Amino acid sequence: MKKKKKRNSKTKFQNLSQSVLNVLKQEPNKDFNYKQICAKLSITDASTRNQVIKRLHQLKAKAQIEETGRGKFKIIKAIDYYTGTIDISTRGTGYVITEELQEDIMIPRRSLGQALNGDQVEVYVYHRRRGQQPEGEITKVIERKKTEFVGTIQVHEKFAFVNVTDPKIQTDFFIPGREINGAKDGQVVLVEFVEWNDKQDSPNGKVKAVLGEPGEHNTEIHAILAQYGLPYEFPTTVEEYADQLDKTITDKEISKRRDMRESLTYTIDPADAKDFDDALSFEKLENGHYEIGIHIADVSHYVKEGTPLDDEAYERATSVYLVDRVVPMLPEVLSNGVCSLNPHEDKLCFSAVFEMDDSGKVYKQWFGRTIIHSDQRFAYEEAQHIIETGKGEIPADISLTQKDTTADPAIVEATLTLDSIAKKMRNERMVQGALSFDKTEVKFNLNDNSEPVGVYFKTSKDANKLIEEFMLLANRKVAAFIGKRDPKHTFVYRIHDEPNDEKLGALAKIVTRFGHKLDLRDRKHVTQSLNKLLSDVKGNKEQNMVDTLAIRTMSKAEYSTQNIGHYGLAFDYYSHFTSPIRRYPDVMVHRLLQHYLDKGKSVSEELYEEKCHHSTNMEILATKAERDSIKYMQVKFMKDHEDEQFLGVISGVTDWGIYVEIISNKCEGMIRLGDLDDDSYEFVEEEFAVIGRKTKNAYRLGDEVYVKVKNADLVKKHLDFWMIGSKEAVEN
């Protein structure tokens, strides 16, 4: 318990100067001594109190605060200009997020100036009444977040305009005739920001690439990638470099490694996987324990720092998994070839090897480079069949060979033992306060033209969880090995902060509508009641909505050299070690681990923090692209089913419309309030409902309703529905 307290304190005061400033800003006309400030910040330990005294004198030296009397300090009222990042809503209102103020600064649409969503800006605050949100106007754009945008071009005789697809971009682009680049009217293009003169309503741009006709499959997929600045081809120099790599495994290289080719080793992956970056080995020991190896492709052996291959992998930072394709971090010759742990081939690995008992307790651990030989490749469905039946006979309908097959008895025994240990490790995690999110994944059956002909849901079964638990074990133990051995050594951690209290409170209010409760007394009760909530909603109409809302209460996991632990997994130490084919942070972890195993000195924290920040940002962009590709496929699927009616659940209620998620395929669309023609409806926020003024008919969050497609916009990836009626009204 003491460890967790210390960790939370570190998180809370990682910017102590800002915390001190915030106390003084809250009461700008009052002066405080260090004891009063510590009381406001709930600081009781002598070490941190001394730091507060030190920070006060530093802030005084910077002329941010003044000493009004001996040991008493007061904020110096600054001119009302601040810098921060602007977030523009789809309705055109901006909010500047700045560390200098506790509240965001609201920017009306008319005061956005030349700011675009995500830009770093200077803002003048002109409205700061007590109890009200500060308002302001943008006075300067300090730095553009992005300079390339996707949109549809309107070509005129001597110029053109590009209407940007992103609804958060509140302007179009003016394109001079010489910069149209052969684009035809109505095509989807990639436009580059050039300049924005003060006298112009729109910025000048130039067409950088023509992506194709709107609504066409390849156009829209390439538009998604272009919108987030994600590449879909490797530069020729990178491809050539990868092709020319020496891929032979020499006796000299083997001599440097632990040879584990005689250990029973196999992989378990999705049936359609093309790269295999992890394998498990299993061996019974004479003392009744097991030696279990988690073997990870040794990407860092082939991808050397400072090479074109490494530079490209770092820039990409992650593979991107769109519905119909993968945009890999590494060229195929590596990802699907030399680094993939294919069966019946010798492969170079970085391994975590543990001596464990039946309960999952670890007695010994070893980390280092190995050579392995995978005996068998299994699909999750095959491993699941072994777990469910306890036998090795695998029927043709789930076999990778599409024939009836029989698994090696030794692999059957290993799988059953590993499954048993994995379940005990998972239970132990839950006891320690881990959260159990098993959110349903939407998958599509695609025809030869990559068009969706069916929707299905992917759920995590025992075979998936078996692999997950042993990957978690390796990730956790690697991080703890470095973090505990020498906390001063710079390392790449995967961190996850505690959830936002306000969002938890909002979630607690919403779930009461469905008869559920959240206990927000302390961390232990929060995790227990969250897990109970997630378990209780399984199979219910509100499951996906509650799962989504619960995930939104969570902080975002990120990469950092500053370890604060992982809240969701309830680990004090955690990293990413197990997927270097598709994640660059794992490559960094492999390099650092080997460096420290070789007794190397600590590396630059500043350099690796920058790399962590870049990796986190690229992961966020990849996630957004993946979500957009799912939305696009959902809209495309619904466009082919416009004449059908669907049963859905009301997943959101606003003052402009009702959001409905269809139960059978998880597609979400909106019914505009103006399209409800049986009455005039108004939004009642406290009831999570819209209610008819005359009839008092209500549509509430979580209600089941029947809907029909009104409009399926492939370019905007947006669905509009017609309301048919409540489930009770339609079925009765």
UniProtKB/TrEMBL annotation:
Biological-process GO terms, alphabetical: mRNA catabolic process
GO molecular function: exoribonuclease II activity; RNA binding
Keywords: Cytoplasm, Exonuclease, Hydrolase, Nuclease, RNA-binding
Catalytic reactions on record: Exonucleolytic cleavage in the 3'- to 5'-direction to yield nucleoside 5'-phosphates
Annotated localization: Cytoplasm
Pfam families: CSD2, OB_RNB, RNB, S1
EC main group: hydrolase
CDD domains for this protein: S1_RNase_R (cd04471)
EC code(s) of this entry: 3.1.13.1
An example Gene Ontology CC term for this record: cytosol
Domain of life according to the entry: Bacteria
Domain S1 motif positions: 643-724
UniProt function note: 3'-5' exoribonuclease that releases 5'-nucleoside monophosphates and is involved in maturation of structured RNAs.
Family in the record: Belongs to the RNR ribonuclease family. RNase R subfamily.
Record's protein name: Ribonuclease R
Species of provenance: Nonlabens ulvanivorans (Persicivirga ulvanivorans)
Name of encoding gene: rnr
